[in-house]
Amino acid sequence: MAIDTDTARRVAHLARIRVEEENLPELAKELSSVLAFMEQLNEVDTQGVEPMTSVTPMALKRRVDEMTDGDRVDDILANAPDAREGFFAVPKVVE
């Protein structure tokens, strides 16, 4: 599938990318080559191939999911610019 300059202009607009008018033919050529590569990939038989989640066959380390009571109010509020009665104090924004 070939991309023309009008389609390249539209794609650039949708992607919110400013492309100068003189660069549109080159962009159209690059987009056409990407689509050609995608068409080439579609010809590969992937029947029976399990999808990959990673390029390395490693399991992620998992931590034990334990509930705690937190009890770290003083540590959490230590960096707050203004804290009152165990809570973050923020400026009033609604009148």
From TrEMBL:
Broad class of enzyme this protein falls into: ligase
UniProt superkingdom: Bacteria
Catalytic activity: L-aspartyl-tRNA(Asn) + L-glutamine + ATP + H2O = L-asparaginyl-tRNA(Asn) + L-glutamate + ADP + phosphate + 2 H(+); L-glutamyl-tRNA(Gln) + L-glutamine + ATP + H2O = L-glutaminyl-tRNA(Gln) + L-glutamate + ADP + phosphate + H(+)
Single GO term (MF): glutaminyl-tRNA synthase (glutamine-hydrolyzing) activity
Family annotation (InterPro entries): Asp/Glu-ADT_sf_sub_c (IPR036113), GatC (IPR003837)
Keywords from the UniProt entry: ATP-binding, Ligase, Nucleotide-binding, Protein biosynthesis, Transferase
TM region positions: none
Gene3D superfamilies with a match to the protein in the record: Glu-tRNAGln amidotransferase C subunit, N-terminal domain
GO terms under biological process: glutaminyl-tRNAGln biosynthesis via transamidation; regulation of translational fidelity; translation
Family according to the record: Belongs to the GatC family.
Functional summary from the UniProt entry: Allows the formation of correctly charged Asn-tRNA(Asn) or Gln-tRNA(Gln) through the transamidation of misacylated Asp-tRNA(Asn) or Glu-tRNA(Gln) in organisms which lack either or both of asparaginyl-tRNA or glutaminyl-tRNA synthetases. The reaction takes place in the presence of glutamine and ATP through an activated phospho-Asp-tRNA(Asn) or phospho-Glu-tRNA(Gln).
Subunit structure: Heterotrimer of A, B and C subunits.
Listed name of the protein: Aspartyl/glutamyl-tRNA(Asn/Gln) amidotransferase subunit C
Organism, as annotated: Pontivivens ytuae
Highest classification ranks of the organism: Bacteria, Pseudomonadati, Pseudomonadota, Alphaproteobacteria, Rhodobacterales
The encoding gene: gatC
